[in-house]
Model the fold of this input.
Amino acid sequence: MQAAAPRKIIHIDMDAFYASVEQRDDPALRGKPVAVAWRGARSVVCAASYEARVFGVRSAMPAVRAERLCPQLVFVPPDFTRYKAVSRQIREIFARHTALIEPLSLDEAYLDVTEMQSGLPSATATAEAIRAAIRAETALTASAGVAPNKFLAKIASDWRKPDGLFVIRPRQIEAFLTPLPVGRLPGVGKVMEAKLAVLGIASVGELREHALADLEQRFGRWGRRLHELAHGIDEHPVQPERPTLQISAEDTFEHDLRLDELEPHIRRLAEKTWAGYQRELAAQERGRVARTVVLKLKTSDFHTLTRSLTAVARPMSAREVADIACALRERVERADDDRYRLVGVGLSGFVERDSYQAQSDLFDTPPE
Done:
């Protein structure tokens, strides 16, 4: 039996996407350190231009800290409507080459080009064509990684940023991975790095040499996953239709609030979440409905709390979502005078509408 040919996966990652769109559309911003963020003590950086990154400014950094690092930083409020429009342009370019596109966010996606539909001779040529089209049609740059699987393609796209292309061929996988720090593997954060360091494992090569049985004993199923990643194995396919898992809205306050002061904010966010949910329902070809209401809180000392409720009957209005989210505050076991810097309201627990209706009919049918 002949072995299946290796897959050909491209990971495209736009370069400093939000900041680059702002610099493209406002020539006065070009060459300057730019942070896409609202200015203020409660704001965080959505994106930073490469000029800002020289000073250590990064996305998700508090805006106050970013300004301390770079006093000349130019703050630009985010315009997500504009960013989404550019993202749609880029997706249209992807679709000329393959139908197997898995968006990860507005600025990055996986493409499976194992079966070429554009007539180009290789995955590398396809990646080059996509990058050239993005530059020509949007005046933006993208970096690309080409590899036999998703996790390697994602590492590769970061290898020659910005505006770069890097290819990892099947025969190069082991040599490429061996010297990398284990922190470059997906899912290996600071905590796991520290645990592996205790075992004398700092590089992917050292992880590869460690016995699978010991990794599984220490880390369970994640131990096997680590073993596979160290050998360059990733069987996860590109998934063109990623089902919605949660729709939410959240807000960070200018001043920390008590739990009993949150209701107007919860109700406002419930309206936003419900509007997003209705847009999702309108865009679906097959109806998937949400059953679970989620309340998210972040304390003044940055602890995140979530509480959720899945009722027998799914929420049918923004008011119902707000009522449930407000009631979920009663399940927060914190001191009455604790303060909160952020609140979020979400809908999750998505199921197929037909399946939900069948279950509802079953429960609503009177006994004979």
Summary: The radius of gyration is 24 Å.
